[in-house]
Amino acid sequence: MNNNLQISQRGIDMPASPIRKLAPLAEAAEDRGIKIYRLNIGQPDLPTPKKALDVLKDIDRTTLEYSPSQGYRSLREKLVSYYERYQIKLKPDEIIITTGGSEAVLFAFMTCLNPGDEIIVPEPAYANYMSFAISAGAVIRTIATTIDEGFCLPKVEKFEELINERTKAILICNPNNPTGYLYTQREMRRIRDLVKKYNLYLFSDEVYREFIYTGSPYISAMHLEGIEENVVLVDSFSKRYSECGIRIGALITKNKEVRDTVMKFCQARLSPPLLGQLIAEASIEGTEEYSRDVYEEYVERRKCLIDGVNRIPGCYTPIPMGAFYTVAKLPVDDAEKFCAWCLTDFNYEGETIMMAPAAGFYTTPDLGKDQVRLAYVLKKEDLQRALFVLEKALEAYNGKQHQ
Q1: Which residues pair with 232 in a beta bridge?
Q2: Are 138 and 113 in contact (CB under 8 A)?
Q3: Is the peptide bond before 15 cis (omega within 30 degrees of 0)?
Q4: CB burial of residue 244 (10 Å; 0-12, 13-18, 19+)
Q5: Based on C-alpha coordinates, what's the Rg of the chain?
Q6: Partners of 169 in the beta sheet?
Q7: Is the pTM for the entire model greater than 0.85?
Q8: Nearest to residue 363, comparing CAs of 125, 90, 111, 164?
Q9: 5, 45, 176, 391: least surrounded by Cβ within 10 Å?
Q10: What is the helix (H) or strand (E) element at residue 97, kind and residue range?
Q11: Rounded (5°) CA angle 85-90-91
Q12: pLDDT tens digits for range 193-212
């Protein structure tokens, strides 16, 4: 091998996924015949809408061609009617179809930020935001939220302490991944006022808007008055229709200059997935009953998981008001070691549990060390069994340490 060849600093800085890095341990456990309850990843087990799958089965094209770089107009028109249900008024040209919500975040960063520019992000946060920032040469500055306060937004002064001449944006995920926290109307107004005062971009990842468990009205960044040109909305079909694999998302903004620049990146990658767009378009209309059933199922699962976790001695999780995740505090010194141990050294009656160590969702060292993110994406019977196995694992782990 040529010893002069070097990996880029960007590649070295790129973090491994905290959600996926335990995957080899899980594979080895399954090879040993262990059954794993996977609460580590936001992959719903619910079926994709039948009418969306039918489109895939009944495809009658003779050529699978490039689509337009901004996505099919028919899909964008359907999305306009979808957003109207949430009092978000858009035109088709204000929507750009992307290869998943991930590409929307990356293109937003590449378009709006120069290398060295800073984004303020409440932590814990979706770990891949850091990866996209590194790809764009941007710097994430985190502002800590705490499990003891239910992960509510810190005071405005805490934000202002971080703002300097390099600060260009605030990024929120609402409802939040990994905490399930839902920003209140008051908190969204505080964010709006900061964005306005310092003329920042507001990147708002709203892929979990279908999953809100409170009577309070849903506040989108698109509802905030006076910062219309500052807002870049990120969306995805993955979670609400259980179709993570189609890789269809959207970048939405009223800011024409941002859209025109995003389009250059879209043209450079040619087009979003053709088959994914056909499935996405079929998912939007006529699936109201499907969405209702899915929502009710998550309401039940949420209750099952939150009640179950809080019944385990030494464990605590706040009640999440959105998405299908929660962050839980466990009675362990190092949750990452515990999660790995569950896969390498532990099983109860041939079963174990897989969780995402929450430290991977924090940028600040040592935060979240005794926490895990749990995704309630399994049916209730499996969730109940998983929690029983978790309790047994904690008993065995803590017993082993005190021997």
Answers
A1: 203
A2: yes
A3: no
A4: middle
A5: 21
A6: 119, 201
A7: yes
A8: 125
A9: 5
A10: strand 95-98
A11: 130
A12: 999 999 999 999 999 999 99
